[in-house]
């Protein structure tokens, strides 16, 4: 089952149509993933407890769990970025046998990293959550929630790798359909396992996570079956699952720097979360809900980043670097416009958006704390678009090393220091003494986050504009 290198009709289409053809299915896919997260948040907000105030602790636990679950997405970069970049290069060059072989090697890597990640998570979860300043009942609930997700991690990583290979071949529709299945299954599975069915009382809070994990198992198996039968020029053969270490090295040559970038960002995000958690359960819960809604913008950028990564990789494979650059700028322009529109929604409807997850009057403090932060992030949407889309475009070109430095500068030089200074009444610098802080609570933390986004957004735009990525070999 072969297909032309880069379909001629695609080359003849205007760039904006090429971008939208890839980005819109990916956008719908990202939003379906968000539906899974929001449905989990919705169930948590309505989880009945003897003391309504305990629900704040549950929401705080779900926020921390959400951060750690997001860490999984960063971990999958160890496989997904190299898969998309290499498959796109091979497809652009018309080398379909190598594209199929790279797909098989991506599945092998996903299985290996999935097993290793699951083992590490199951052993280290309690200590990690304690380090994130979550204690007591909230910490216990968080560990219980994440345990089934950790146990089933290999399926989610393999699902991501399969979708990444298809995206490299220019097929984002199949991933959309499969994740649609995952989202449709997640709601009844999570609800039934949480609250029970008929005389069965259910598993409680942990049932939400188990339902999510099982829906990803089904998504993974579905994608493997699809690739085994052949789709979009890619087909899994048993021969392609035999480890090919030179090709695996090529995959990792792109993926490892990208994963270092994503994982170091994830670690810094967890550091940032520990600062927020010190502000108490109300601030932590408000932070988590604000991030859920902010994902409307973030995931839009990720979809256009997928388009940029695929088009840049395919055009470089076809030896069209100038066209690759135009594709990257087109993806940023359209993605930035969409994300700015999302920012307008945050400005206008922050309070109603919070009340969706905080209908109980006892949770009004979460609304009052979180709504200003959600409005603030609207101002950073253009910068966030630059950071996300150009990061993906550079990864599609195989330029994944220099961007790591940008992430470190943004987090370690801007976000973390500012977060300490703006959230606390005073900051202990050890031998340097104590300096006064702004004591702005959660709002101060989000000021630090927005400042970081503008710094990194500028760095990535300048790097892409330099054109140095056009000569990177993968």
TrEMBL record:
Protein's cellular compartments: Cell membrane
Q: Where, by residue number, does the polypeptide cross the bilayer?
A: 67-91, 103-125, 178-198, 204-230, 251-275, 295-317, 329-350, 370-390, 402-423, 443-462
Molecular function as annotated in GO: antiporter activity; xenobiotic transmembrane transporter activity
Q: Which Pfam families match?
A: MatE (PF01554)
According to its UniProt entry, the protein's GO biological process terms are: monoatomic ion transport
Keyword Transmembrane helix assigned to the entry: answer is yes
Q: Which InterPro entries match?
A: MATE_fam (IPR002528), MATE_MdtK (IPR050222), MdtK-like (IPR048279)
For this UniProt record, the keywords arranged alphabetically read as follows: Antiport, Cell membrane, Ion transport, Membrane, Transmembrane, Transmembrane helix, Transport
Q: Which GO terms describe its cellular component?
A: plasma membrane
Per the record, membrane topology reads:
Multi-pass membrane protein
Q: Know the name of this protein?
A: Multidrug-efflux transporter
